[in-house]
Amino acid sequence: MDASIPVFEKPHPKVTVLDWTRNIQRLQNEARVRRFESYELRQRANQLRNETSVTTHWDNYMNNEMLRDRIFEVQSWREKQRFTRECVRDEIRVLREEKNSTELLLEYLQVPLMVVSQCFSNRDQRVPPELTTDQLGEELRKELHIIENSKRVLTDVCHMGWEKIKELQNVFCRLDREIQNKDETLQLEYNVKDLNRECSNISYQLDPTRIPAESMSEESYVHCIENTIKIANQLMTESKELRETMFKSREQAKNQMYAQSQEVEMFMRRRVYDIQRARNEMEWQKSKLETNLQKVDREIECLRAAVADKINPTKLVETRLEMRTRRPVLGRVQDKPMRGLIEEYERVHTSSNLLEKKLEEALTTYHGMYNHYQRVIKDLEYKNQALETDRRLIEIRKPLHGPNETEFKRNIGYCHVANELVPE
């Protein structure tokens, strides 16, 4: 049959209405599932957005609070370390003052040492008869021993003070360094805390969760700070004990040297008194010897005159006896004149012998007294030299006394008569 219009069919298979209807239902079901999935996705996305927003907000808030707490903690430790640093600085200052006072006393000890050395040198100028081992020499040696011992003790405590100052300076530098680190840390923490999402200096970072090298735990951090403060407190306690030791050593050295100086000067004045008394005794002996020498000298002159006076009577009686021996034989009678002349001869010779013996005895006594007189004069010179030597010690020891301490006041202290004087 002929057609009015041409009909062309696509070269595809045809579907039935039932298949077409089923295809529409399948698309409807698929669309319903997609819409449900879209709804579920939107609900979950909204919930996720809300949860992440809340989590981010609270995480930021909590981290800000933790940063604030951390800043407060660092500030607290910094203030403690600052207080400890100031205490260490004050302790270094007072310890240096104590050390300087001890060094000044140590330098002053050169004066007593020089004085004691001059005392020994001055006393060595005495002549051998006056080189006595007396109590004054013992006290001077004791004073020298006390000064040397005080010098050794003060030198030791000064060295200990220098070492303690060095240790305190080390811990002071350590505290100062840690405080500077905390200042830098606080500045950085403040910058971190002040950052927010609106800041222009925030950006993505490469591996921001890495842990830097040489990082320490919080326990180690606290332990390090507490250990530094503990070391500083321990050193300050030791420094305080050392300052007390320095003060005690100085005062003990002063008291010992003052007491020994008083003891030395008491024995020095006693020794001067003893030498002066011995000198006065020698002066008295000298004057008595001079008087007796004059008397003995006069007596010797009298004895010599008496011996000379017996020469002519001896010659006379001997001449008479000799002349009577020339009488004639019948005239040689042993009469009374003969017996009288013989008795006179014997008495004259006896008197001459007695006078000569007495003269020799007087000369011996005179020479003995004169030799003793010379020895007394020599000993008196020794006594004067020793007295001048020991008196010179008073001038030598003047540097050990204060400028207002007069000899009268020292004598009052030596004799303990201050309570017996009328107050001014």
How would you describe this protein?
InterPro entries: Tektin-like, Tektins. Residues 279-306, 370-397 form a coiled coil. Belongs to the tektin family. Keywords: Cell projection, Cilium, Coiled coil, Cytoplasm, Flagellum. The structure is a single chain. It is built from seven helices and no strands. The longest helix has 92 residues, at 17-108. The protein is mainly alpha-helical. Residues 412-418 and 420-424 have low confidence and may be disordered. α5 (311-324) runs antiparallel to α6.
Keyphrases for this structure?
7 helices; Tektins; disordered C terminus; cytoplasm; mainly alpha; cell projection; 424 residues; coiled coil; Tektin-like; single chain
Unreliable sequence segments: 412-418, 420-424
SSE-based structural type: mainly alpha
- Spatial gap, N to C terminus: 172 Å
Strand content: under 5%
Number of strands: 0
Rg calculated over all Cα atoms: 63 Å
List the secondary-structure elements in sequence, H or E: HHHHHHH
Q: Which word captures the global form? A: rod-shaped
Largest sheet: none
Compute the number of helices.
Answer: 7
Average pLDDT for all residues: 87
Helix content: over 70%
Element layout with pairings:
Blueprint: H1 17-108, H2 110-123, H3 135-194, H4 218-309, H5 311-324, H6 336-396, H7 407-415
Helix pairs in contact: 1-3, 1-4, 2-3, 2-6, 3-4, 4-6, 5-6
Subcellular location: Cytoplasm, Cytoskeleton, Cilium axoneme
InterPro entries: Tektin-like, Tektins
Family: Belongs to the tektin family.
